[in-house]
Amino acid sequence: MKKYLFLSIITLFCINLAFANDTPPDILDIAKQMNVELLQFSSKMYSCTPYKQQLTSYSHPVFYEVVGVEGNTCHVNKSGVNCYYPKDVAQSYAYKKIQDYKKNIDNITRNQSYSSSSVNTEYYNKMDNQYCKYN
Fold it and tell me: Per the confidence metrics, is the pTM higher than 0.85?
């Protein structure tokens, strides 16, 4: 349950973080870096290509890993939480994440501000609840 709470907090931070237009540049840099790192991870998840990543934009270690194809699933490990998404679900999930991260990066670059509110949050939570095992 603690890991679920931890992932929920990270997800909320990534998706619902909002800054005013006069956001200090260092915070924008961190937000952009976070989105770039998560975009890389989501791209590997889309193809279910093995990939390990420690997100450097967080103050404490956060590890994401695409373990790879296992049977008809794509095995993903998000900070110790194992997820086994059916391949088509993994692609749909990753595709939506990729679009969100690209939009966030573009907004940060163009507007020099960061305000993200994903319409896919309910979808992500539903998929994680259905396919992830919280130890």
Answer: no
pLDDT at 16 over 50: no
DSSP 59: S
Is the pLDDT confidence value at 109 over 80? Answer: yes
3-state helix, strand, coil in the chain (%, to 5): 55, 20, 25
Quick one: DSSP state of residue 22? T
Helix (H, G, I), strand (E, B) or coil at 120: coil
d(CA 71, CA 108): 39
Phi, psi of 34 (to 5 degrees): -60, -45
Domain range holding 74? 2-133
Total number of domains in the chain: 1
